[in-house]
């Protein structure tokens, strides 16, 4: 009796368990069918990108036996930190933009060794030697104090377009201004030894009152990935340069009693002459980028400088003559020169760039090492004062200017904040 009741209880327990399982499975099936009815599948647009979050892996397309892998996530709407790394060096180097327009502006400071002063010492000395042929006994002009390197302030501006950080077009303008004046001289000093007609003297021959050099550059660059962080390529620069110098000339001589006009003092008390240069050239170069971090890049550019053009010097020089009877007079003479000029050398630009979103801060250095030569140099100082009584810049033909090359160097350090605008497939940001 006890055994019969036990078997009956076991049979009832198994039956209840089976009924419960059938009920649960039926409920799940009905819920799944209701879900499919409430959310019918919609075929995505041809150009839309389906993200992994919206993909239902449990529903497979009909009549397909093989699975199709998702393409890499290149949606420009996705933030940079969520984009996947590609495998080629170029794609790893450039993960941020397809098109970029950058505008920068800044200022700097530096040192200048101007050719207009560096040429004065040897040119005046050699020209005073040539004068002995036509004007025997005219005072010599021997330089004894060359011009020092001078301070400059600089202004910078550029705008550039980049395509995938590989192709780049840049327009850049650099204006260099001297920071000296009559109270802060930039000059050449001379001595004149005693002769049969003149006493020995010392004077300031040339003073630079203002310097302004403007470089305009239109550059086309291409850089190719060498490694995952280094890119190197050629560049070409359509370059234009203008230089404006404001100069004051000086001279001093005193005749001896044995001279034709005894005890006469001739003093060039000042003047104002403008020396202007206009040159252009096509500069080849090499351009490199080093991507150390996503936000830190180092750039370097070396260009071979070769520009040529015209120059002119025109102004006035005031000369005072004091005679033996203490009478005096002021007379103006006119220095006028012109010809062809050429600059050759190198331009080196080193720059470190820090970027945050669309903003950047660039700190850099530009070094110009130039040798200036004159293909032609013609002119004279015209006036009524006897030529043997004062030292002129040049006489008729500047043989000394054309015979040698003159150093011209500029070193500038700058800081340039900038802002960029990006364009990808679907938007500008």
Automatic annotation (TrEMBL):
Region: Disordered, residue numbers: 34-84
Compositionally biased intervals (Polar residues): 53-76
Alphabetic keyword roster: Signal
Domain of life of the organism encoding this protein: Bacteria
Signal peptide: 1-31
Protein name: Porin
Source organism (scientific name): Leptospira levettii
């Amino acid at each position: 009796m006890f055994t019969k009741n036990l078997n009956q209880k076991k049979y009832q327990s198994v039956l209840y368990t089976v009924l419960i399982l059938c009920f649960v499975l039926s409920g799940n099936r009905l819920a799944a069918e209701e879900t499919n009815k409430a959310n019918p599948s919609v075929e995505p647009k041809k150009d839309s990108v389906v993200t992994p979050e919206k993909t239902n892996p449990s529903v497979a397309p009909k009549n397909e036996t093989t699975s199709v892998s998702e393409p890499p996530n290149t949606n420009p709407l996705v933030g940079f930190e969520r984009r996947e790394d590609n495998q080629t060096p170029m794609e790893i180097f450039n993960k941020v933009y397809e098109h970029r327009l950058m505008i920068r502006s800044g200022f700097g400071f530096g040192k200048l060794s101007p050719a207009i002063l560096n040429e004065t010492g040897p040119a005046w000395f050699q020209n005073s030697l040539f004068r002995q042929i036509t004007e025997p006994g005219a005072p010599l002009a021997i330089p004894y104090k060359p011009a020092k390197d001078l301070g400059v302030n600089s202004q910078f501006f550029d705008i550039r377009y980049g395509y995938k950080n590989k192709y780049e077009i840049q327009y850049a303008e650099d204006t260099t201004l001297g920071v000296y004046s009559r109270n802060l001289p930039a000059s050449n000093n001379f001595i004149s030894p005693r002769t049969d007609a003149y006493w020995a003297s010392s004077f300031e021959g040339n003073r630079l009152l203002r310097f302004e050099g403007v470089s305009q550059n239109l550059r086309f660059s291409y850089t190719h990935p060498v490694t995952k962080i280094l890119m190197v390529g050629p560049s070409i620069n359509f370059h234009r340069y203008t230089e404006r110098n404001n100069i004051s000339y000086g001279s001093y001589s005193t005749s001896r009693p044995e001279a034709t006009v005894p005890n006469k003092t001739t003093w060039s008390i000042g003047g104002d002459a403008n020396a202007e240069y206009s040159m252009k050239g096509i500069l080849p170069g090499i351009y490199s980028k080093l991507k150390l971090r996503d936000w830190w890049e180092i750039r370097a550019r070396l260009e071979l400088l070769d520009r040529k053009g015209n120059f002119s010097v025109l102004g006035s020089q005031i000369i005072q003559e004091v005679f033996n009877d203490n009478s005096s007079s002021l007379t103006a003479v006119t220095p006028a020169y012109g010809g062809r000029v050429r600059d050759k050398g190198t331009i080196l630009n080193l720059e470190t760039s820090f970027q945050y979103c669309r903003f950047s801060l660039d700190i850099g250095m530009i070094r110009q090492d130039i040798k200036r030569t004159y293909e032609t140099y013609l002119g004279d100082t015209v006036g009524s004062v006897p030529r043997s009584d004062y030292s002129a810049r040049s006489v008729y033909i500047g043989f000394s200017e054309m015979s040698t090359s003159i150093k011209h160097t500029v070193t500038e350090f700058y800081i340039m904040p900038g802002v960029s605008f990006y364009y990808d497939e679907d938007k500008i940001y």
